[in-house]
Specification:
Elements (H helix, E strand, L loop, with lengths): L1 E5 L5 E4 L3 E5 L17 E9 L4 E7 L3 E8 L2 E5 L6 E3 L3 E6 L4 E7 L6 E8 L9 E6 L10 E6 L8 E3 L4 E7 L4 E5 L5 E9 L1 E4 L2 E4 L3 E5 L3 E6 L3 E9 L3
Length: about 240
């Protein structure tokens, strides 16, 4: 088993006033040559956006972009439909940028901050037709069991959003003292596990809120919740 530990405080941080951004991997003005990616996972940003603020219209190309709001209301608009869509906690959005798309993302609230994860995954196909999708995921369905959110467009996995990569994104809410085994889909995959909140014993590590670990070269990962714990799993091919 190969492991890469990324503690919460080791992430890159940028304070833009209206935006408080934590970067698990090199992004914008924060560069760490040892943290460029984890296999096909290129970006995991943990953003807090002030009321009424956000990202103006900007382009993307050949990237699979997944956004998971944790609190607040995200509003999204893109060049595919050019109308604002709300994305709420327990919803997930995916956008395949493909040959090129423009979008805007703003905090839809006038009063409360927006907290979200934004994930970029390197696609296995370039210059595809751009596409957008979103869906709601019942929180009860991830209580002490894995809830799949995103999977490959090339394989049928019912109830998931689709991207152009052989990847799996899932969530799990563990009660205190519960154990769980995560099984990787192949020896060519690794899984990046983020503790959204709580405390987790994972192999030889104890992880706290917003700590993360990348694991590869194994078929199964064993874990124990030391407190009520919410987890994000991003499983990706390690060779791209």
């Amino acid at each position: 088993m190969k492991t890469i530990l990324h503690t919460s405080e080791s992430r890159g941080f940028a304070n833009h006033g209206w935006l408080q951004a934590n970067h698990s991997f090199s992004f914008a003005n924060w560069h760490n040559k040892d943290r460029m990616n984890f296999g096909a996972l290129r970006v995991l940003n943990d953003d807090i956006i002030a009321p009424k603020m956000g990202f103006g219209t900007h382009p993307h190309k050949n990237m699979e972009i997944i956004t998971i709001p944790l609190s607040g209301e995200l509003k999204h608009r893109d060049s595919l439909e050019n109308e604002w869509k709300s994305v709420l906690p327990d919803e997930v959005q995916v956008m395949s940028a493909g040959r090129g798309v423009e979008h805007s993302e703003i905090n839809g609230s006038q009063e409360t901050h927006l907290n979200l994860f934004q994930i970029w995954i390197i696609p296995n196909k370039d210059n595809v037709e751009p596409r957008y999708d979103q869906d709601t995921f019942n929180t009860a369905a991830r209580k002490n069991q894995l809830q799949y959110l995103v999977s490959s467009i090339d394989y049928e996995k019912e109830g998931t959003l689709k991207i152009h990569q052989d990847a799996l994104i899932s969530r799990l809410d563990l009660d205190e003292n519960n154990t769980f085994q995560y099984y990787l889909k192949s020896k060519n995959h690794g899984v990046y596990i983020m503790v959204i909140n709580g405390e987790l014993k994972l192999e030889a590590y104890t992880l706290q809120t917003r700590d993360a670990i990348g694991i590869s070269e194994t078929s199964v990962v064993n874990m124990l919740a030391l407190a009520k714990t919410s987890l994000l799993f991003i499983e990706v091919p390690m060779k791209i």
